[in-house]
């Protein structure tokens, strides 16, 4: 294992230990309630970036995948009382399948056409779920949390830790893709699809792979949300805000490196949580918009791009 | 050394037709390219030269006809599989991977196209890449971003990237367009040295001295049809070729 990988896994372990310790020492539920949302957005942004960042295919369908994750959990819980782990695993499988299907249908389209197709997908799926009585239809459905498992004291704490596990999983996958031949292939096809294809890169297969992985992670991130809110309804589960927020987080953080969406999600997610408590939840969207405009103008390659530029300048200045 | 005429062709194009809507860009084109040949492709603008090589490299699907490479029908194969079978190309307007360095551009080819059964270590691939860059005179630019290259360097990098796919057949699409005469000589020498290593090359070029000097055999296209094929002097002496170029 290289030094970088070793540091990464030590960091990941420390992070998980810290979250576990938090659930044991902090009695107040609110921090977990707030941090859960941030963790959820880290998973979504990292997942989005695998297709949107590495491959450059801007996906507006985050809310479709997220919502499918939510409703997979709702369905499994209502129909079979399935435990949380099963809900997440099945959601990931469905997300992978959906990603594959969406990819086959749309990945031959490029640029804006692909993005529009993903928005259409969201609307189709939301309409379908809205008309599905078994999972509550338009009125939504109440969920009764099962008893919590040891060592956790409350269900929210457990969900918080589960989401932290998903964060580590998502980042590990994203990091692996970035550093492997897949990452190089995706970067090549993002730069120039025809040149990539003529250099031997199986562009369609790589894009499908990115879509499958991205979809699976997004659905997995959505699965615990039903239990988190103890309620699910189509208009919030499939809210287009997820798509826009996740896109903003990835772009603000920077898409050239796996750390970009993580930084973006923490920054924007934390800001949103702060604003929700101090001012109002409506201001969120405004702040999101302002930050996005600001970054597009000042740092089009996001925070990661900005850091790289500063470093390069310093190196050239020194040399 | 002239290629043996009795040998089986490396590439056989039979009755190839390509239409864009109502416009026929290639009309029933058939030609054989022999192993080791240096083949020149000329023709006025819009005569179908680039369309033909797009059909060979797989960027375009054809309406009719077949492309057979080393006794295998590749007419329906996507470009990346043709690349892996040994067909490489450069582009008329260079298409580098802009977010990468020169070295990384070549690594894409080594990672994806030059696949062999035996395991090749990262160090070995790095050596292969550096030796290609050295041959192309780009060794000092290995860690430079592709966006920082000059026009002639970009052309060389395209050829280097094509070479990194380990081709048996190289298509050079106007690799010399827009270069100064000394740069043209430089690129021409490069292509000549590649041809000496058993790589069959099709060269599309508007610079007549270059393509005449390079080619063992030449073909002239006009309005999607072959109007002449033969030795360079035969083709240039052809009445229809002169008409096509002079427009009389």
From TrEMBL, chain B:
Single annotated GO MF: ATP hydrolysis activity
Keywords for this protein: ATP-binding, Nucleotide-binding, Transport
PROSITE patterns assigned: ABC_TRANSPORTER_2 (PS50893)
Pfam families (alphabetical): ABC_tran, BCA_ABC_TP_C
Key word Transport present: yes
Domain ABC transporter positions: 11-248
Tagged with keyword DNA-binding: no
Example GO BP: L-alanine transport
CC annotations in GO: plasma membrane
Biological role: Involved in beta-(1-->2)glucan export. Transmembrane domains (TMD) form a pore in the inner membrane and the ATP-binding domain (NBD) is responsible for energy generation.
Name listed for the protein in its UniProt record: Branched-chain amino acid transport system ATP-binding protein
Organism encoding this protein: Bradyrhizobium erythrophlei
């Amino acid at each position: 294992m290289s030094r970088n990988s070793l540091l990464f896994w030590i960091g990941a372990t420390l992070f998980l230990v810290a979250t576990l310790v938090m659930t044991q020492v902090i009695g107040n539920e609110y921090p977990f309630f707030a941090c859960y949302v941030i963790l959820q957005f880290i998973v979504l942004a990292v997942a989005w970036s695998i297709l949107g960042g590495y491959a450059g295919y801007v996906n507006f369908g985050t809310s479709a995948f997220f919502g499918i994750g939510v409703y997979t959990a709702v369905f499994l819980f209502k129909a079979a009382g399935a435990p949380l782990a099963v809900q997440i695993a099945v959601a990931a499988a469905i997300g992978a399948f959906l990603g594959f299907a969406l990819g086959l249908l749309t990945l031959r389209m490029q640029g804006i056409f692909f993005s529009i197709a993903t928005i259409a997908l969201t609307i189709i799926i939301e309409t379908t779920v809205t008309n599905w009585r078994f999972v509550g239809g338009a009125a939504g459905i109440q969920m009764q949390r099962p008893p919590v498992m040891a060592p956790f004291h409350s269900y929210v704490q457990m969900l918080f830790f589960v989401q932290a596990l998903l964060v580590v999983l998502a980042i590990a996958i994203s990091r692996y893709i970035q550093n492997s031949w897949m990452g190089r292939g995706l970067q090549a096809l993002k730069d120039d699809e025809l040149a990539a294809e003529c250099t031997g890169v199986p562009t369609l297969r790589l894009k499908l792979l990115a879509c499958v992985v991205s979809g699976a992670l997004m659905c997995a991130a959505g699965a615990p949300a039903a239990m988190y809110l103890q309620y699910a309804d189509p208009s919030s589960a499939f809210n287009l805000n997820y798509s826009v927020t996740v896109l903003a987080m990835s772009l603000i953080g920077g898409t050239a490196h796996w750390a970009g969406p993580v930084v973006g999600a923490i920054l924007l997610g934390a800001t949103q949580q702060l604003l929700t408590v101090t001012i109002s939840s409506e201001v969120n969207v405004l702040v999101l918009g302002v930050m996005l405009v600001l970054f597009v103008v000042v740092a089009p390659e996001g925070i990661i791009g900005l850091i790289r530029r500063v470093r390069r300048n310093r190196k050239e200045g020194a040399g | 050394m002239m290629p043996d005429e009795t040998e089986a062709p490396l590439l056989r194009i039979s009755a190839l037709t390509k239409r864009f809507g109502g416009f026929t860009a290639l009309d029933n084109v058939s030609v054989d390219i022999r192993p080791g040949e240096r083949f020149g492709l000329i023709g006025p603008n819009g005569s179908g030269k680039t369309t033909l090589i797009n059909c060979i490299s797989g960027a375009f699907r054809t309406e009719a006809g077949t492309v057979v490479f080393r006794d295998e029908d590749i007419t329906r194969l996507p470009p990346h599989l043709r690349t892996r079978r040994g067909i490489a190309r450069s582009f008329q307007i260079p298409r580098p991977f802009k977010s990468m360095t020169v070295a990384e551009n070549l690594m894409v080819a080594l990672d994806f196209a030059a696949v062999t059964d035996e395991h090749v270590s990262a160090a070995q691939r790095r050596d292969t890449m550096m030796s290609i860059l050295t041959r192309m005179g780009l060794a000092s630019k290995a860690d430079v971003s592709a966006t920082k290259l000059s026009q002639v360097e970009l052309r060389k990098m395209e050829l280097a990237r094509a070479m990194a796919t380990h081709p048996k057949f190289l298509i050079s699409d106007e690799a010399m367009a827009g270069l100064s005469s000394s740069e043209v000589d430089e690129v021409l020498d490069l292509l000549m040295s590649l041809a000496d290593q058993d790589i069959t090359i099709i060269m599309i070029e508007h610079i007549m001295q270059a393509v005449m000097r390079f080619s063992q055999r030449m073909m002239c296209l006009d309005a999607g049809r072959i109007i002449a094929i033969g030795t360079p002097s035969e083709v240039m002496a052809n009445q229809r070729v002169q008409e096509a170029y002079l427009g009389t």
